[in-house]
Amino acid sequence: MKVKELYIYPIKSCRGISVQKAEVTPKGFLWDRELMLVDSDGNFLTQRQYSLLATIEVTITNDILTLSVGDDFSSQKHQDTNNSFSFKPTLNGKEVKVKIWGDLTVAIDQGDAVADWFHKALCLPSNLKRLRLVKLFLVLLSPVLVVLCQPLIKLQEK
């Protein structure tokens, strides 16, 4: 098997990052789906509900995440987010319960500054949370998602 492309998604439902290599941890790839946006009730937000999440670019340099609105997207929805926003995710913040596909787990709040940036970028009140060391729901679903090209090509031929 040959891997053609490899992506990680540090913030669930935001744009992925193409990587040449990835460190594999017990949870899956390092930084993959470590963070997520949740609404005021603690429910995680997805692209299925809020397609603008796909316009948020994430880069990582020395454990610092930088957020920006993709250059290829221009809309009145994005207010005052010409500037990027950088922060270092923490595991020491306030612990809160969050709901992911109906399952409750505990996550760490990443603070008001990043929540304000997302609110301006998406016109959507939300908070960024980091999952604690145990990500059972993701590990059980699949810590590493692999798409095999040959079966997809055969499906397309039909």
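Above is the first protein from milestone M3; the second protein from the same milestone is given next.
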Amino acid sequence: MDKFFDEIDRKIINAYLQDSRLSYREIAKRLGIAVGTVMTRTKKLELQGIIESYSAILNHNKLGYELTVITEIKVSKGKLVEMEKEIAKICRKSVKILEVGFLPNLIIVSGVILILSKIKL
């Protein structure tokens, strides 16, 4: 972290992690600091790339995304990073694939990539 990252920055980040829709005013009220401080610190955190974006957490079950899939892919020696990039590219293009996670410990042990993914039905 940057030497300018302090306890106030950490508290602001935690407030956004709890609810990314919070206004500067609400965060200031919760932390007992000035609105201008929250605004300035938030902009600084965005410029430094510490806060990259704000997002919503959706209830996938209510949206009909109920299927979790584990896929096994054998990868040639030395091609793991290339394979992960290719899978990520495919996932970005697919509306049906919501989330993908790799299980790295299993890759090392077995030489097989296990992919945990949530897919739209």
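Note on the second protein: The longest helix spans residues 80-93.
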